[in-house]
UniProtKB/TrEMBL annotation:
It comes from the Bacteria. Keywords: Coiled coil, Hydrolase. Residues 161-377 form the PPM-type phosphatase domain. PANTHER family: STAGE II SPORULATION PROTEIN E (PTHR43156:SF2), STAGE II SPORULATION PROTEIN E-RELATED (PTHR43156). Pfam families: SpoIIE. It comes from Marinobacterium zhoushanense. Gene3D superfamilies: PPM-type phosphatase domain. The keyword Cell membrane does not apply. This is Fused response regulator/phosphatase. Residues 122-152 form a coiled coil. InterPro entries: Bact_Sigma-Reg, CheY-like_superfamily, PPM-type-like_dom_sf, PPM-type_phosphatase-like_dom.
Amino acid sequence: MVSASTAVIDLVFDLCEQCQNTHLRIIVAHGADDVDRLLEHRAISLVIVDRSSIGDIAYLNQIAASISPMPTVVLLSEGTAEEMVVALRNGADDVFSLGELNQHPQLFISSIERQLSRVRMIEEARFLRESLERSLDELKADQHAAQQLQQKLLPPPVRELNQIIFEYVLQPSLLLSGDFVDSIAINEYQTIFYLADVSGHGASSALVTVLLKNMTYRLVRNYNRGSSFDIQSPMATLHRVNRELLLTGLGKHLTMFIGLIDARDSTLTYAVGGHHPMPILAQGGEVAFLEGRGMPIGLFEQPVFDERRIALQPEYSITLFSDGILEVAEGGTLEEKENTLLRACMSKNLSPQSISDSIIPAGRMNPDDVAIMTVSRVKP
């Protein structure tokens, strides 16, 4: 309370003691110096200002602004309409004349109870906001840590395995991506690669990509131990991933294209798990989508996957996309968008980045994760 009058202070103390369900601690400031010190060192919930105890009306505005959004109540000696308007315009939430306090004390008591109720709501909202901000900060830290982990699980952006060049770009719509790519040399002549697109976004989808990495590398370890040869069959690999994803009970599913290149007979064996668009094969001067179909992974106990084998020429390029590319590819229909992808894959100096630059405008925010992977072999 701000007042230099003992009579006013005593009256306000008596009235505040009559407020219901409140535990008040009233601190008195007799002048500007006391006010400034209290505002600097204490958390104030409500200020009651005796107008006659402050000079310039602008000081009332300063006090009200310093404790906002907490309320300010002003007491006037006369209580004329003009003085009340001036007080309200300078930050007062309620105004009373000293005469009203004596003649109608209940009005002042009710006002203080309302203002204190407002204070409680403001403090609760502030607590909730601060709790939410702390939770968001923790969530951001967790997301960044998960992002670093996911980045470490991805292969190098460009690498060569068994004389095959693997390149990719991955542009997540959020910090974490539901798209994932990998390439693995099973032995000196067989190389497996895949592009997976997990449903949804964020941490839960990113978790599935971690599980996928673990599953495929476990199949490679089993092959090296001689306990399982599923990794040499794209279709068998999809069945293993489907079974293990269902066992997690995460309620997530994914689409996946997986290919196996065998250098002994220069063939590509591939299987499709609900993936679209299909990869584009460029060889012998022709560019076309691979054929095939299959069910998504993680939805059915007994899914049907399509496995095919084609011959590869000495020089070829296979380009894989996640379905996020269809969100940004030019064209009003699916056929037009697919033609856009075909045109992008006709370049001689093909790379995931060049394809991305030709399809996605610079600076555009992608509504979905976008992954592009190229698998290529050229004559030395």
